[in-house]
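Record type: monomer structure entry
Structure origin: computed from sequence
Chain ID: A
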Amino acid sequence: MINPQETATRMILLVEDEPTLLDALRYNLGKEGYQVVTASDGMEALEQAKQINPDLVILDIMLPRLDGLEVCRAIRRDSSVPIIMLTAKDGETDTVLGLELGADDYLAKPFRLRELLARVKAQLRRAEMPLAGPRPTLDRVQFGRISVERDSRRVFRDDSEIGLTLKEYDLLDYLRANAGKVISREILLDKVWGYGFAGDSRTVDVHIRWLREKIEDDPANPRHIKTVRGIGYRLEQ
């Protein structure tokens, strides 16, 4: 059981168009102490996201009026709120697209309630806590043209700020804190996603690709985030 003191002020936007599942998730999330606001279509979801500024979004992909992928894209333009996407069991393409658009996690239907609750809790905790590891003596650390302000979680190329999602920032920060070391995909899943993530290496690869698009001068020939074939990635300063 989740400690009610950890959840009392947490606002979750739950977006699902299947009434039975929506009611069941709303009831069980509320039972754990979360405040839950619901939406049953994509347009309503965007309106609610703007009005309530949720701490986390649970977002189904198959929605009327505007699908979950477009909702995720729109939310991510303005917010780094954690997003957990709900996908069809065989929706591999949608899963990858959701991660590319900035989703932090996904669950394939049907899923166990306990697993969803664990992921909700983990995402909320991670949104509030910096990654464990050695802290720099200065707030701002730099490699190449990229500088990272760890206290404010802001990243700059020269003097222009780069907008990173929550997971993109955590991934970059962990690689930077372990610069020069080869980090496997499995370790990145554990350290950045923060718990027994049920995804696979594509989750890491997708986020690495998008991170390169944002920080590298030539993403196809990256200077900083190097691929170590068959193992994982290494950040070179």
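Annotation 1: The mean pLDDT is 84.
Annotation 2: The CA atoms of residues 23 and 121 lie 20 Å apart.
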